[in-house]
Write a structure and sequence with these properties.
The complex is a heterodimer. Chain A is mainly beta. Helices cover about 0% and strands about 55% of the residues of chain A. In chain A, strands 2, 4, 5, 6, 9, 10 and 11 form a 7-stranded mixed β-sheet that branches. A 4-stranded antiparallel β-sheet of chain A has the order 1-3-8-7, with no helix packed on it. Chain A is globular and about 35 Å long. By secondary structure, chain B is mainly beta. Chain B is about 0% helix and about 50% strand. In chain B, strands 2, 4, 5, 9, 10 and 11 form a 6-stranded mixed β-sheet that branches. The chains are: A mainly beta, B mainly beta.
């Protein structure tokens, strides 16, 4: 299916565990983004990527790691999950100005 | 430091009413101002966008008004319907002049349209 997909859609993990959230887009958009959405904070940019092998920090990068070896994939890893990382995570890709969002991953860290 | 300030945080209107959501920005270099709509359990989706060379843009029942001198822009929803109940985000970016395509987001407005 064309578009942008995220997996898993729901994840429960424990403090200290490593978690990887996957993002895949089929449009070959050069730019990709990871956001977290929390009540009262809107959308906060974690990391973004301008192309394969080019990534940069956003507003709230601490505790997260990204990689982009292929244009279509942009995984987000929480190296050692903390309760404060409980959130809804959105991946997006863009062509020019419009950003296209995935359906989100709801992550709970116990 | 938030560069795009959005108000109100929440809004309740009756069906047929005209909700208005306002945003103010600081960076005069911004040249692209989109509004995104987000339904519960879904990702945001582009609703309508404007560039600063026009003062108003309409798409169906949705209108953006833009005031460059005041550094403000607003979203008006004409003849609002219960199906318009969603969270609305304004944003701004440097458009094609920016090398990173980043959007600077407002904090969102939760709109409820009562039947």
């Amino acid at each position: 299916d064309a578009g942008i997909t995220q997996s898993p859609r729901y994840k429960i993990t424990e403090t200290g565990r490593q978690v990887t959230l996957m993002c895949h887009q089929t449009w070959s958009h050069s730019y990709m983004f990871w956001y977290r959405q929390d009540l009262g904070h809107g959308l906060r940019l974690i990391y973004y990527s301008a192309a394969a092998d080019i990534t940069d920090k956003g507003e709230v990068p601490d505790g997260y790691v990204v990689s982009r070896s292929k244009t279509e994939n942009f995984p987000l890893t929480l190296e050692s999950a903390t309760r404060s990382q409980t959130s809804v995570y959105f991946c997006a890709s863009s062509s020019y100005n419009e950003q296209f969002f995935g359906p989100g991953t709801r992550l709970t860290v116990l | 430091q938030q560069q795009v300030k959005q108000s109100p945080q929440s809004l309740i209107v009756q069906k047929g009413g005209i909700p208005i959501i306002n945003c103010a920005y600081e960076n005069t270099a911004f040249d692209y101002f989109p509004w995104y709509q987000q339904f519960p359990g879904k990702g945001p989706a582009l609703l309508i966008a404007i560039r600063p060379d026009v003062s108003e843009k309409k798409e169906g029942r949705f209108t953006i008004s833009f005031n460059k001198s005041a550094k403000q822009f607003s979203l008006h929803i004409m003849d609002s319907q219960p199906g318009d109940s969603a969270t609305y985000f304004c944003a701004a970016s440097l458009g094609n002049a920016g090398n990173n395509r980043k959007l600077i987001w407002g904090l969102g407005t939760s709109l409820a349209v009562n039947p």
